[in-house]
Structure formats: structure tokens, C-alpha cells
Design a protein that fits this description.
By secondary structure, the chain is an alpha/beta fold. It has a domain of 236 residues: Rossmann fold (3-Layer(aba) Sandwich). 47% of the residues lie in helices and 14% in strands. It has a six-stranded mixed sheet with strand order 3-4-14-9-10-13, with helices on both faces. The protein has a five-stranded parallel sheet with strand order 8-5-6-7-15, with helices on both faces. Strand 3 and strand 4 form a beta hairpin. The longest helix is centred in the last third of the chain and has 22 residues.
Length: 485
């Protein structure tokens, strides 16, 4: 049976179900498979014409033992997860006519219009499946900079065995993203707006981490997470890299370069692990905005926390790309002592530098770029004026990064990952295109509906949030328990 271990090395191996339900490993590390499944060229060729759901079944079966989830159960979970998506193919690819061999992977056709739907549609259903089987209840806690929160809330809403507390930095995400959380009427969804966060969404991660470190509170409320710290998110996100590669190539082995807007490194970590499994992606481009946390890692060899900048691509306004530690575990030969050394040093000092060999190992096959808002706006405008296709700010960061390296990369198909629908950023679209009325591509019926719905939420100041939310959550849990027979 494939087991899961902490990348810090301080926790015993566990099975797949335990890794999913726990989220973090007990030593504070991230769960990783004890060995990464390898996929042969023959297997890749056999998978090439599968639908997204069929492909997901094949890939996830490499990570999930049949004694944990049967073939029939896994197929049903996947079918249920992707039934609400707008497009039959789940993730269509759009060819940019103004750029040579360049395609946009449209990851925003889920219910909340972002790529987070792709991972969370499956993961939340999976968590609830395990809980129903065990007759247990969990409290999900996630921090969001715009997209994880709405997706978590949507897929958790009405689930019998789950509560979701979704923390977001109030004023640092769009009103459209906020309303996707606050207008859900379900009693098990609890949006929490936190004002005046000095470090944006990273401040909320600190609050959540402190709750996990409180053994009594964690055990009482059965805390877990479906943030990208959860292995299930990373595992599921490997699928769209395989799917995109297959859609763009005629034969296995063709050169393909992928540019990914990234802050926390969860999506990009999935791409790196897909390549580790055997998918022949030639180059992965870490497309950062001005916050440049990943650009420092991949261009200069150090992991540091700097002052945060609010940007147009707000979902990647992140200072601490936590999933880099998960990728580093595989890139540097599965050495938990190396991960723990650098992770601890970063947490103590806010900075850690990698030696030349470690840097060489993890940077191989990667490029990185830090795009300014000006670059982002220019890219949106150029693509729209050239061909009438509208990028959201995050996709524009990816296209901008790709253009930086186009001549260096040479031949090969270019795929940019579009991680959110433009309708989530109407003010930016209006400003960039200098239009009073939004083009049709920048609207969506679900966004318009949310504008008219009643909101419900908790609201705290950052200085008070940790203690006040702690008490609020505990009181709510006690009330739930009193109602149960």
C-alpha cells in the first residue's frame, strides 16, 4: 500500500485517508507519497484520448489504494465532482491567434469561476465521503486571497459532515469574490472578513497555524484544511497538466512549455510533480506579480519574506509559497532533514538561502518572471485589441512571463494557465480597456446573481481576530454538539 509521509520527516507514515483528513502532518510538515508513481511513455500514449474525468480516474488510481476507495466509488466521486462544470471537457483550451503556437488553458468553468474549483470539487467530496463512512464531523479552515475561499464554501455548502470557516483579508479581494462566499445561505458556511492585515492573506495563515498548534482546540473542533497544504489538492491538480499536454500534442515527447500564475506554488507544484511522474513538460514558468516570492527562489536561490504589495492579480499576492517545500522534497532527493533545516531557518529569520547544488537541482526546467501591474494591463489590452479575447489579470501575468522567455524557449507549444474568469475583476477590465460598459466576456450570470443576494459574515480587526474567532468557533461547535442526539 502506498503510504504518505511528512516532508519534514518527524511523523510516522499514514495511509491516504489519514493524510487527506489531517491536512498537515503532526510535525507541521506537508504530506507526500512515500514514493512517486512513474508513468511510462506507453501509458501516456494509452491515456492520450481520454476525457478529463477518465484521465483523472487513471492518474488518481496511482495514488489511492483500492482498499481505501474502490474503483466504483472513485469513478462516482469524480463524476459527481465535475458534473456542475459549464464545459463538457471541463478544461477547454483556447488558441491565441495573435501568438505563435500559444494556447490558454481555461481553468475557470467551475461553479465559482476559478481553477480552485478543479481541485476542490473532488477534494471536498472526498473528505465528506470519508467522514460519512466514519460517521464523523470536521471543521475546515482555509485562508483565501480570492479564489480558494469561494470554491471551498461552494463545495462544502450543505455537506452533512462539514463546517467551513473561510478567512479572507477584507478589502484586499474583489467584491465579486467576497460575495461568492458571503451570499451562501447554508448554516455550515462561515465567511470571516479580517480587516487591516499587514501581510495580507499570509496573516490569516498565521492565525490558522496557531489553531493547529493548539492540541486541545484542534482535537475538539476536528480541524482540517482543504487549502493547498492538503495533498488531495496537489494530486488532483496534476491531472490538468496531463490533459493539457495531451490536447496540444500529436506524439508523446513533443516539446511543451507551460506558464503558470503562481503565489503559493500549489498549482505549479502539481505541474512539477506531473513532470516528476513522467509527463514530458519541457519548461515550467513561475509567473509572479510584483510580490516576486517565487521569482527570488528560482532566479536568486533564496526564500525570503518581503513587504507585501497589493496588485491587480490579487489571488497571487502571497509572500510564503508553502508548497515549494513539498516540491523541494522531491527535487532534492527526498531529504526531510534538508527541508526541516531550511523551513525552520525561514520561520525563525524570514529568510533562507540554498546552496549551489540544491539551487541547481530545484531550478532545473524552471524559469521565473515578476510582472508589474503595468505589464499585466498592457498584456490584457494587447490581446483584447488584437483578437477580442479577454484575459483575467492572472492569466495576463502568465502570458507576460511567457513572452519574456519566448525567444529563449525556441520550438514547442506554449500553454498559459488562465486561473480565473474575467468577470471576477470588472473594475480592472473597465480601467484597462477604458470601457464604461463591460464586454460580454467580463460578465457571468452567477456574479450578477450574487450582487442581489443577502450577505452574512463575521468581521474582525486583525489585532483582535485570533482570540475573537477562537471563541466564536468554539461556541458554534458547542451549539452543534448540543443539537446532536
Amino acid at each position: 500500500m502506498l503510504q504518505y509521509v511528512s516532508n519534514k520527516g518527524g511523523s510516522p507514515p499514514v495511509d491516504f485517508e489519514t493524510a487527506i483528513l489531517d491536512g498537515y502532518a503532526p510535525d507541521g510538515g506537508l504530506y507526500v507519497p512515500s514514493q512517486m508513481p512513474k508513468v511510462s511513455k506507453e501509458q501516456l500514449a494509452a491515456w492520450k484520448d481520454l476525457s478529463f474525468v477518465e484521465l483523472a480516474f487513471e492518474i488518481l488510481s496511482l495514488f489511492i489504494d483500492r482498499s481505501i476507495i474502490s474503483e466504483t466509488e472513485l469513478k462516482q466521486l469524480l463524476q459527481d465532482a465535475y458534473a456542475p462544470f459549464e464545459k463538457e471537457e471541463v478544461i477547454p483550451l483556447h488558441r491565441l491567434s495573435s501568438k505563435k503556437d500559444t494556447y490558454v488553458m481555461e481553468l475557470f468553468y467551475g461553479p465559482t469561476l476559478s481553477f480552485k474549483d478543479v481541485g476542490l470539487a473532488f477534494l471536498v467530496n472526498l473528505v465528506n465521503f470519508f467522514l460519512q463512512r466514519k460517521n464523523e464531523r470536521l471543521t475546515l479552515m482555509v485562508a483565501t486571497t480570492g479564489d480558494t475561499g469561494p470554491a471551498t464554501a461552494y463545495f462544502t455548502a450543505g455537506k452533512s459532515n462539514l463546517d467551513a470557516w473561510v478567512l479572507y483579508p477584507k478589502g484586499l479581494i474583489t467584491e465579486e469574490q467576497e460575495r461568492q462566499m458571503t451570499t451562501l445561505p447554508h448554516s455550515n458556511i462561515h465567511p470571516v472578513g479580517v480587516s487591516n492585515c499587514p501581510d495580507g492573506g499570509d496573516d490569516l495563515d498565521v492565525i490558522i497555524s496557531s489553531y493547529y498548534a493548539d492540541a486541545r482546540f484542534k482535537e475538539k473542533l476536528k480541524l482540517s484544511s482543504v487549502n493547498s497544504i492538503n495533498w488531495g489538492r496537489i494530486m488532483m491538480q496534476t491531472v490538468h497538466y496531463f490533459y493539457g499536454y495531451f490536447q496540444m500534442t500529436d506524439t508523446i515527447g513533443e516539446r511543451v512549455h507551460m506558464a503558470v500564475p503562481s503565489g503559493g506554488f500549489g498549482n505549479l507544484c502539481a505541474g512539477a510533480l506531473a513532470r516528476e511522474m513522467g509527463l514530458p513538460i519541457t519548461t515550467l514558468i513561475a509567473a509572479n506579480n510584483k510580490n516576486a516570492c517565487l521569482h527570488r527562489i528560482f532566479s536568486k536561490g533564496f526564500f525570503s519574506k518581503e513587504a507585501i504589495h497589493a496588485t491587480a492579480s490579487s489571488a497571487i499576492d502571497i509572500l510564503i509559497p508553502i508548497n515549494f517545500w513539498r516540491y523541494l522534497y522531491f527535487a532534492c532527493g527526498r531529504k526531510p532533514e534538508l527541508i526541516k533545516k531550511h523551513w525552520d531557518e525561514f520561520e525563525q529569520t524570514g529568510n533562507t538561502r540554498f546552496d549551489d547544488q540544491t539551487f541547481k537541482n530545484y531550478a532545473e526546467g524552471f524559469r521565473s518572471h515578476s510582472a508589474s501591474d503595468e505589464e499585466t494591463y498592457k498584456t490584457i489590452r494587447q490581446i483584447y485589441e488584437a483578437e477580442g479575447y479577454l484575459l483575467d489579470p492572472h492569466a495576463a501575468v502568465a502570458v507576460s512571463a511567457l513572452e519574456t522567455f519566448r525567444s529563449e524557449l525556441g520550438d514547442g507549444k506554449m500553454i498559459c494557465l488562465a486561473t480565473a474568469h474575467p468577470a471576477k475583476f470588472p473594475d480592472i477590465v473597465k480601467a484597462v480597456l477604458k470601457k464604461h460598459n463591460l464586454p460580454e466576456q467580463a460578465t457571468h450570470t452567477s456574479i450578477e446573481k450574487a450582487k442581489k443576494a443577502q450577505e452574512k459574515m463575521y468581521h474582525f480587526e486583525h489585532v483582535d481576530a485570533k482570540e475573537a474567532l477562537y471563541q466564536t468557533m468554539e461556541t458554534h461547535w458547542d451549539q452543534i454538539r448540543k443539537k446532536q442526539p
